[in-house]
Design goal:
Elements lengths: L1 H9 L4 H22 L7 H18 L4 H20 L3 H15 L2 H4 L8 H10 L6 E6 L5 H9 L3 E7 L2 H10 L7 E5 L12 E4 L6 H11 L5 E5 L10 E4 L7 E6 L3
Parallel strand pairs: 1-2, 1-4, 2-3, 4-5
Antiparallel strand pairs: 5-7, 6-7
Helix pairs in contact: 2-3, 3-4, 7-8
């Protein structure tokens, strides 16, 4: 069973396919056990806990991220609990739509919604040029708070944000409706954006896309421009500068100066 899952994972399928496969296999294993034995008598909820432990074990054994192990541990028991509560399916649809509006295509990008702290804003203010004209791009700009604050402090800069989740994009547009023309929020996919137009590119993403981001930055960004990542490092690439922040998540800024 583990060899079959490992073979599929080595082919690098979508992570949701792997998660679904783990759930199906653990359900089949527990179902087979329920049908073929008669000496273990458990309730439906107790069997769901057994299934979740098996799914969590498989996820851990296959080195899935820690949060996915927790999801597998809680998924089936929560399904049984919600079914027992007899909640209208419309509520699940409503919750699903709300999550999609807030987080967008997180299931595809594997980049959740992160909001940069005030401490990040203070550090970036001190690192950006004081007199020289420059352009700044925030990848996945969320609710637009970071670039709106930076635009107010740096009149010599042009600040751009790209966001693909509907609700954060709407909030950022409303937030900057009366802002100066130096701060612009766009709807779209930042992977389609040409990084060569910007002097500073800021990212607060997740561990998953960092290697791909580095390849894009090296290919498109001009020599001397700056790539900044909040919290997440680029695998195998030492940053030129590391700034530890004393904020609520004890995050760290990693800075890479693009070379020839």
């Amino acid at each position: 069973m583990n060899k079959m899952i490992s073979a599929i994972i080595h082919k690098r399928p979508h992570f949701l396919v792997v998660a679904l496969l783990i759930q199906i296999i653990s359900l089949m294993a527990i179902g087979f056990l329920v049908i073929t034995q008669s000496f273990i008598e458990l309730s439906v909820f107790e069997w769901s806990i057994t299934q979740s432990l098996l799914a969590g074990f498989l996820a851990y054994h296959l080195c899935m991220p820690k949060w996915w192990v927790l999801i597998h541990l809680g998924f089936m028991p929560l399904v049984i609990i919600t079914l027992a509560l007899n909640i209208s399916p419309l509520w699940y649809l409503f919750l699903f739509i709300c999550l999609m509006l807030v987080y967008g295509k997180t299931y595809k990008t594997r980049v959740p919604l992160y909001l940069s702290s005030q401490q990040v804003n203070k550090v970036l203010k001190s690192r950006l040029p004081k007199r020289k004209h420059f352009s700044f791009l925030d990848l996945g700009s969320g609710c637009g708070g970071l670039i709106s604050r930076l635009a107010k402090a740096h009149k010599n800069g042009l600040f751009y944000g790209i966001e693909a989740a509907p609700i954060p994009f709407l909030i950022s547009k409303l937030r900057n409706i009366f802002a100066s023309s130096s701060c612009k929020i766009s709807w779209g996919d930042f992977w389609q954006q040409d990084f060569s137009q910007y002097d500073v590119v800021y990212a607060y993403l997740s561990p998953v896309p960092m290697e791909t981001l580095w390849h894009k930055a090296r290919k498109e960004m001009r020599p001397g421009s700056l790539l900044i990542s909040n919290t997440f490092q680029i695998p195998g690439v030492a940053p030129d500068e590391i700034i530890e922040l004393n904020d609520f998540s004890n995050s760290t800024l990693y800075l890479w100066k693009i070379k020839m």
